[in-house]
Design brief:
The chain is an alpha/beta fold. The protein has 2 domains: about 140 residues, no CATH class; about 300 residues, Alpha-Beta Barrel (TIM Barrel). Helix content is about 40%, strand content about 10%. Strand 1, helix 8 and strand 2 form a beta-alpha-beta unit.
């Protein structure tokens, strides 16, 4: 059925015209539909709709058809079922992270939108989460009743709230005007928090916040929310990462309330890696939400004091919400569009993938500045170090979005002490990233390499560097 999707994308402009014509005449059938009644109308229309949509679009029958907005490519064919994509795992050739033999559905979406109208490739409307109750139901009935375009959920952006007396330490640091520093830690494979606290201790006084990963790479560790709460209880400022891979919207909202109750105020919203990349590939992924819809729900809890269902909260959480961007994966224009979606949905800070190619990142930041996104969210450029050139080459080959100039790789391989050279490269990179206009801070990564990261923070001058913006 993959060829079907490619056909529909190639003919997106003509199919869009057919849809608009059909949507214009469909309301003429409304009297007949009222005479038949909802049950008989559904029974009559749905089999025909299902057959035609499967034939032309490889339809997955979600009951919330958005083909007219997604370039005639059904987003439900995404293995992560992302309604707002693409994820950060798109391969260099445009292949899917989960199924490399398949072209990324969201690359197809942008191709189809471009064919309809070139300007459409620069943006995409924010789509709401899938309503499971509508699966296997007709959307033609909605069009007959006058709903010509699918429902979108991009809320108007209100003025930024001023909370001078309630800012958390990390948000206050972001607003301070200096270059902020965050670092990433993986929770331990243990019920004893001592190891986590020992590894965090090396960063006390050096960083503004410590990210706690949530099943990174599809591998199981101590829960992110628990590890973040442990750090908060011991005087650290944690960033709780939550991914959509493992929990549905009910569980995620409960975790957000629990995190707030335990003193965790900073939340990084992620779609998540596929389980096939981890050590338990037989696990069943959830992906009830994507990062954009998760941000929207979390924002609603904070600003409107209600769950996604509309039910009121007794006390709303006060969270500083963040998201990620992978500047180096295709399609480039959709990276910016997706970043814009995340900022509109509620992200107030953004952390990026590893950066080794500073000129390429500078070009990305120039595009960010043209859209004014650096004025709406604090951009933290990702940097880090590994143990060897071999490990770095593995990352380039296996982790989408890690882009390392060949000359830099050869420099590291030629060094007598590769780890020391990698450390020097990271320090140089950090210093160059920190002075790029629009960069609010640095996010450091390096699995089980805490002591070296602490040295990089000190030797690069990050601990007390004023922001050059």
């Amino acid at each position: 059925m993959y060829a079907v999707r490619l056909w529909s994308v190639r003919h997106a402009r003509g199919l869009r015209r057919v849809y608009r014509w059909g949507a214009g005449v469909a309301p003429l059938l409304a009297p007949l539909l009222r005479w038949l009644g909802p049950r008989r109308g559904e029974a009559l229309l749905y089999p025909l709709e299902r057959t035609l949509k499967r034939l032309f679009f490889d339809c997955r029958e979600c009951g919330q058809c958005v083909l007219s907005l997604t370039g005639m490519a059904c987003p439900m064919n995404c293995p992560k079922q992302m309604r707002n994509g693409p994820c950060g795992g798109v391969r260099v050739d445009g292949g899917c992270e989960v199924r490399p033999e398949m072209r990324c559905v969201w690359v197809e979406v942008m191709d189809g939108r471009r064919r309809i109208e070139p300007a459409l490739a620069e943006s995409c409307p924010t789509l709401p989460p899938v309503d499971g109750q509508r699966h296997g139901r007709s959307t033609w009935i909605q069009v007959i009743h006058g709903q010509r375009e699918p429902v979108v959920s991009a809320p108007p952006r209100p003025p930024r709230r001023v909370r001078s007396t309630t800012l958390g330490p990390f948000e206050a640091a972001c607003r301070s005007g200096r270059t902020v520093v965050t670092v990433e830690l993986a929770p331990p494979d243990s019920a004893d928090p001592a190891e986590l606290l020992e590894r965090a201790a090396g960063f006390r006084g050096l960083v503004d916040a410590i990210n706690i990963t949530d099943g990174a790479g599809g591998n199981c560790h101590m829960s992110s929310v628990a590890a973040a709460a442990v750090l908060a209880a011991h005087g650290y400022v944690p960033v709780y990462q939550t991914v959509c891979r493992d929990r549905n919207r009910i569980a995620i909202q409960g975790d957000l309330l629990g995190a707030a109750a335990l003193g965790v105020r900073n939340v990084l919203c992620l779609t998540g890696d596929d389980v096939s990349r981890g050590d338990q590939p037989e696990a069943r992924p959830v992906f009830d939400l994507d990062a954009v819809t998760l941000l929207g729900i979390a924002r609603g809890m904070c600003e409107q004091g209600q769950f996604a269902s509309g039910r009121r909260l007794t006390t709303a959480p006060d969270l500083f919400l963040g998201a990620t961007v992978n500047p180096f994966v295709p399609p480039g224009e959709q990276r910016l569009a997706n970043l814009e979606q995340k900022v509109a949905a509620g992200a107030r800070f953004i952390q990026t993938q590893f950066c080794f190619d500073v000129p390429a990142f500078a070009e990305f930041m120039a595009a960010v500045r043209r859209r004014g996104l650096h004025e709406q969210a604090f951009i933290l450029a990702g940097a880090g170090t590994l143990g060897s050139a071999r490990a770095l080459r593995w990352m380039v080959a296996n982790v989408p979005g890690v882009q390392v100039p060949e000359g830099l790789l050869r420099r590291i391989e030629a060094a007598a002490d590769e780890p020391a050279e990698l450390k020097r490269v990271c320090i140089e990179t950090v210093r160059e990233l920190a002075v790029i206009d629009g960069v609010a801070g640095i996010h450091l990564m390096g699995h089980r390499n805490e002591s070296v990261l602490a040295e990089i923070i000190v030797e690069s001058g990050l601990a007390a560097r004023p922001r050059q913006n």
